[in-house]
Amino acid sequence: MNLEPKQIAEFKSEHQISAARFSSDGSVLATAGYEPVVRRWQFDGKTLTPLPSLAGFHGYSTAIAFQPKQPQLFCADSWGQLRCCEGEKTLWQHDTAHDGWLRQIAVSPDGSRIATCGKDQFVRVWESATGKKLAEHQASEDVYALTIGESIVFGDMRGRIESWDFDLKQKLRSFDGSALYKLDRIQDLGGLCVLLLIDGGKTLLAAGTTPQNGATPQSIPTILHFDCASGKLAKTFTHGTNKEGYIHDLVLHPTGCLMAVSAGTPGSGMLFLTNPADPEPFHVNTQMANCHALALHPEGKHFVVTSTNRDSNGNGKSLAKDGQYKTNSSPLHLFEC
């Protein structure tokens, strides 16, 4: 079944968004981005209405994830803070869960555990209800992405991907995602952004980009399909030109298709939907600039894409009339399918 999404509304935000997710009941959309707060919206099926934001973060808010069976929200910042909230109330908090940038949060399917990774090279596992640290592993590089199924899978800057049994504290499998890394012009170009398990955990997807060159980086959106049992690369999916850049978010729809958004050179951006077995997407939307997040509503009929304002001042060339630098913002595009 091929979906035919149509945009039905657009909502403005004051700041630039890097991550967005719906709560398990679909009533709340939460976003993280380039400011020290996590913003929230009430969703009624047609409208996003602002709710009180969660403050008290440092630097940027960087990662968010909802508990799949409870109303708790896990959120993090670029100073390494990890927090569990229910509504506006903080249930538990670690100010130094990681030493610096906490990149991603993954929640186990039953909601009992969360895993985090960061620039300090650590992967850590926590009890979701109490925040108790259960296990940790130090990788050899900055860890970019992770996901949880029966095991925990994580990947680093150079595309080295591993699955671990954290109860037994042993490595289960290695995956070669080095196609998502390149050293060019003395720049490390790490292209891994998302890890996702599909087919009941039989297939691992590693999404991001295939770097072409450094300086002003050019790269092609890429999804690597790995067989989890053998660790072997089964398929490489690419779409677009070297201006389309990174797949920043990848989501599995209940129908089985993959939904992805990308951002590359200024002004470019793409939403595409594809079936895992197909060589090309069946739906592509290039009307939004520099897309960074895709939040799928749990009922599967709605989703939100966050992009970057078209009149972006991100290059810093101009100031507003009052002499102040105008920051970018992220429109929230509501789709129905």
Residue fraction in strands: over 45%
Basic shape: globular
Q: Enumerate the spans where pLDDT stays under 50 for 5 or more consecutive residues.
A: none
Structural category = mainly beta
Question: Strand sequence of the main sheet, in spatial order?
Answer: 1-30-29-28
Largest sheet: 4 strands, antiparallel
Report the radius of gyration as a whole number of Å: 19 Å
Helix fraction, binned, reads: under 10%
Number of strands: 30
In DSSP terms, counting alpha (H) and pi (I) runs of 4 or more, how many helices? 0
Report the order of strands and helices: EEEEEEEEEEEEEEEEEEEEEEEEEEEEEE
What's the rounded overall pLDDT mean?
93
Distance between the termini: 12 Å
Structure notes:
- With 337 residues, the protein is mostly beta strands.
- It has a domain at 1-16 and 244-317 and 327-337.
- Helix content is 0%, strand content 53%.
- It contains no helices and 30 strands.
- It has strands at residues 6-11, 17-22, 28-33, 38-43, 48-54, 61-66, 72-77, 82-86, 89-94, 102-107, 113-118, 122-127, 133-138, 143-148, 152-156, 160-165, 170-176, 181-184, 187-190, 192-198, 203-213, 218-227, 233-238, 246-252, 258-263, 269-274, 283-285, 293-296, 302-306, 332-336.
- The strands form eight sheets. The chain has a four-stranded antiparallel β-sheet with strand order 1-30-29-28, with no helix packed on it.
- A hairpin with a 5-residue loop joins β12 and β13.
- The chain is globular.
- It starts with 5 loop residues before the first strand and ends with a strand.
- The mean pLDDT is 93.
